[in-house]
Specification:
With 612 residues, the chain is of the alpha/beta class. The protein is built from 18 helices and 20 strands.
Length: 612
């Protein structure tokens, strides 16, 4: 009973103490796309992804009700680093939802005019960025004035503050009204009330060295995350206990707060409640990270060993050296990646799976409509029949005394063929082993898509090739041959498609460069590179985050310079954060349901090539 009453009291007093306007809450997920577009339109780097910021400790003046409830000790500010733009997961600062939405857009604009988080003068840097925005984009002035008026209405009254805090607050309010008009930031104890129109005063940069990827385990790649999972914490590296100086044989959590770290060994219990551990993690402002000598089950990595030679695919050509773009150095690192072309040896010929026969038959009939028809080619020097119109014109010219060449008097009945070559490149990384429903994995959906794509193109006469790729660091990029341009689509090809399986990671840039080299050798006037993937670029080494994105973008741009049309099809829910930067707004498609991919892929191809 006492616990129940305590919970009711806690909820009541917390609700009274909060200053947020919950009825006007706007969530980041609802404005993520608009925020990304505005950020990049104002000059922000296209490779930055938009993620939810974490609440950080912010000690400011609180009223007695807030002190009783224990709230208003943390705040979510916007900030950015070299790879990510962090924005609050939700905003309920103002009583109108429209103002909270405009605040999201303003923070994105402000971040576009500030350098990645470094040691800057918070007071001067935010004023300078604001002044630059208002000077260059006059259309944002009205929005800013509305936000300033709403912000000043929430700021504390100068008359009710101590002299030092009053002077500091006056400087902030003046700087909001007239950016770049105040240069002195008066000193006062504590921190001022959060200035929601400015970026983070002390961005949570990682102290010390970041943990190496090899130490913390590998990501599966391409899996979507919630805003809560994407938040980052401030952390430091610390030495692990030596295992010989433990003080406690049992756990007494009451001796420490949840946010404190003590360098002592603790007993381990495999039955720990992971949900409670996650909640505790969310409450921490600062994390201490160490590398324990003991290997636990969750840190096991199953991708360290390659298959035995007799079980692996056969290598057709090894040691193909490819460059890689380093966006930090702004240089193309020559011969940085090593690629191997491979083909499945253990892939017996098969017929089309029974569950695809009906769909394949329907697609074949649809594609017959776009296949070029056989037609008479007139005015030919030789052919299967006499061109009567040409012969009549020739005879008339002779009778009129005009000299006319005797060529072009025949016609020939020929089949039409479009001057088109398409290379489909499928992502076969480890993330494709994930289940999309109770009966199929992502790799199964990709396999069915390749089957139906091939069946559909058989009726058009278009030249096409099928390849797959995965990687394990830069020295082992696997490029799987399913069907080359010179090979016919037959039972052997279907056998190789049937044999595909999830591989390793997604070094997308190297695969695109090799596919570009293959497609660029084709003589056709229109060449289409179609990429099929379920996630963003990543690998075991540094090939993740913005590094992988920028390398892939560089590979795509180089392919287009060679006259190739590059298009991406993805089922990654987070793709809209990075694909516009990689391929352009009109050169990718996101399928919300992976199950739609097999039927959507051939129809997409029809749309892309309909003008050919």
């Amino acid at each position: 009973m006492e616990e129940h009453v305590g919970q009711i009291w806690h909820q009541f007093i917390t609700r009274l103490a909060r200053t947020e306007h919950l009825q006007a809450t706007v969530y980041l997920d609802d404005v993520r796309r608009n925020v990304g577009v505005l950020f990049r339109a104002l000059g922000g780097e296209g490779g930055l992804r938009v993620e939810a910021a974490t609440a950080t400790h912010y000690q400011t003046r609180r009223n007695w009700l807030q002190r009783i409830a224990g709230v208003a000790q943390q705040a979510e500010f916007a900030w950015r680093d070299a790879e990510t733009l962090y924005l609050p997961a939700h905003l309920a600062v103002f009583p109108q939802a429209s103002l909270n939405r405009e605040l999201y857009l303003w923070l994105a604009a402000l971040a576009a005019f500030q350098a990645p988080a470094v040691k800057l003068n918070w007071f001067l840097a935010n004023q300078a960025a604001t002044a630059q925005i208002l000077a260059r984009f006059a259309g944002l002035r009205a929005r800013y004035q509305r936000l300033v008026a709403a912000t000043l209405a929430l700021r504390p009254d100068l008359a009710h503050l101590p002299p030092e805090e009053s002077a500091r607050e006056l400087a902030i309010q003046t700087a909001l009204r007239q950016p770049n008009s105040v240069t002195d930031y008066p000193f006062a104890k504590g921190q001022p009330m959060p200035v929601w129109l400015w970026l983070h005063p002390e961005p949570p940069l990682t102290a010390g060295h970041s943990p190496r990827r090899e130490d913390v385990g590998a990501e599966s790649g391409g899996q979507s995350q919630t805003a809560r999972e994407q938040r980052k914490k401030k952390g430091t590296r610390t030495e692990a206990p030596d295992g010989k100086t433990g003080l406690l044989a049992f756990r007494l959590e009451s001796l420490f707060t949840r946010a404190e770290y003590a360098k002592v060994d603790r007993t381990e219990d495999e039955e720990d409640d992971l949900a409670k551990a996650q909640d505790a993690l969310e409450d921490m402002d600062h994390l201490s990270v160490t590398q324990a000598e003991k290997k636990t089950a969750v840190s096991l990595r199953f991708d360290l060993d390659l298959p035995a030679v007799e079980q692996d695919d056969r290598v057709l050509q090894g040691d193909i050296l490819l460059p890689e773009w380093d966006w930090k150095r702004r240089e193309l690192r020559k011969d940085y990646c090593c690629l191997q072309t491979m083909i499945a040896d253990h892939a017996p010929a098969v017929e089309l799976p029974a569950h695809l026969c009906h769909s394949a038959h329907k697609l074949r009939r649809q594609f017959e409509a776009v296949a070029p028809l056989r037609s008479w080619h007139r005015n030919q020097a030789e052919g299967s029949d006499i061109d009567l119109d040409a012969w009549l014109s020739y005879t008339t010219d002779i009778l009129c005394g005009h000299v006319s060449a005797e060529s072009g008097l025949y016609r020939d009945f020929r089949g039409g063929q479009r001057d088109l070559a398409c290379l489909l490149l499928a992502d076969l990384s480890l993330s494709t082993d994930a289940w999309v429903n109770n009966s199929a994995r992502v790799i199964d959906i990709i396999r069915d898509s390749l089957f139906l794509f091939s069946e559909a193109l058989q009726n058009t006469g278009d030249r096409f090739a099928l390849y797959g790729f995965s990687s394990r660091r830069r020295d082992h990029v696997r490029f799987h041959h399913l069907k080359t341009f010179k090979q016919n689509y037959n039972a052997a090809t279907r056998g190789r498609i049937q044999a595909i399986k999830p591989g390793y990671y997604t070094r997308m840039g190297a695969a695109i460069r090799h596919a570009t080299n293959i497609l660029a050798k084709e003589p056709n006037s229109q060449r289409l590179l179609l990429l099929l993937t379920d996630g963003k670029p990543n690998d075991l080494d540094h090939y993740e985050g913005r590094y992988g994105v920028e390398d892939t973008r560089h590979a795509v741009l180089q392919a287009r310079k060679q006259g190739l049309q590059v298009f991406c099809v993805t089922i990654d829910d987070q793709a809209e954060d990075y694909l516009p930067h990689l391929f352009g707004a009109q050169h990718y498609i996101l399928l919300r349901k992976a199950e739609d991919l097999p039927k959507a892929l051939p129809l997409l191809y029809m749309r892309l090539t309909s003008q050919t």
